[in-house]
């Protein structure tokens, strides 16, 4: 609690956290959308569920999804859609979304 008529000042930790939040790529926006849909090679959305079209980064995560959302259907790894194989690789000059870092510095 602050004293009488003493405004609370911003700490260095708080300012550093604000700067980090403003300049770090968190996977949102257009770059994050491309990452989530698997349009950019190197994105996190590698596999697509053949039943509900939800994406997952690997087989283990897709199996967890399948066991919880489609328990009556048997899991078959060969039926999964590999989005990285179907979509051609994008330009290498584009920044990859989902990787910690920023262009705003």
UniProtKB/TrEMBL annotation:
UniProt lists compositionally biased (Basic residues) regions at 1-11
Swiss-Prot/TrEMBL keywords: Cytoplasm, Nucleus
Listed InterPro entries = MBS1/2-like
Segments for region (Disordered): 1-45
- Where is it localised? Cytoplasm; Nucleus
Gene Ontology CC annotation, any one? nucleus
Top-level taxon in the UniProt lineage: Eukaryota
> What's this protein's name?
Uncharacterized protein
């Amino acid at each position: 609690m602050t004293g009488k008529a003493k405004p609370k000042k911003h700490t260095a930790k708080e300012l550093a956290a604000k700067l980090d939040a403003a300049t770090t790529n968190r996977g949102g926006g257009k770059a994050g959308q491309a990452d989530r849909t698997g349009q950019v090679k190197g994105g996190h959305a590698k596999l697509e569920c053949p039943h509900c079209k939800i994406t997952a980064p690997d087989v283990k995560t897709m199996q967890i999804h399948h066991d919880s959302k489609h328990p009556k259907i048997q899991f078959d790894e060969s039926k999964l859609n590999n989005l990285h194989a179907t979509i051609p690789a994008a330009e290498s000059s584009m920044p990859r979304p989902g990787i910690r870092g920023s262009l705003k510095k």
